[in-house]
Amino acid sequence: MNAKIEAGAKFPNITALNLEGQRIEIGKPTNGADWRMVVVYRGRHCPMCTKYLNKLEEHREKLRETGIDLVAVSADSEAQLRSHLEKLDVDFPLLCGLDIEHMQSLGLYISDPRSAQETDHPFAEPGLFVVNEDGLLQVVDISNNPFVRPDIKTLVSGLKWIRDPKNSYPIRGMRSYGD
């Protein structure tokens, strides 16, 4: 059983490979942004993931304007990611090589392939994490299947509202069961 990662927790120091073979810290914002959205997707074998990533690209600029950098990561190999690029039209970093230990540290659901035609390794089910300027989890969304994911338009609109200083919106879900 995976432990649930808590809202407000420090995002774990996790690295994955980019297509240049460099290890990239997935939760660290780049390109002048101070927040980062980390999208964990199932992999090349998932047509719903391909559709979701392409839809995210349509909102990438709005996220950037809000100070949020975007990255997507899977357990796929570099070769699988390269072949997936044929179906993707995105201009945000795609990373590969997410290992089971890291999936577990994020509290992700992990699945085994149904067949060798699907893929050749265990993979994470979808997860979406928004890391704020303090490296804390501002938003956490974890699913056990590809059919349940945040609506991107609503998510981007909500993040813009959260980032607006006049709203002073805290990290939600911080109350523990014993309180």
From TrEMBL:
Domain Thioredoxin, first and last residues per copy: 5-164
Domain of life: Bacteria
PROSITE patterns reported in the protein's UniProt record: THIOREDOXIN_2
Entry-linked Pfam families: AhpC-TSA
GO molecular function annotations of the record: antioxidant activity; oxidoreductase activity
InterPro entries: AhpC/TSA, Thioredoxin-like_sf, Thioredoxin_domain
Descriptive protein name: Alkyl hydroperoxide reductase
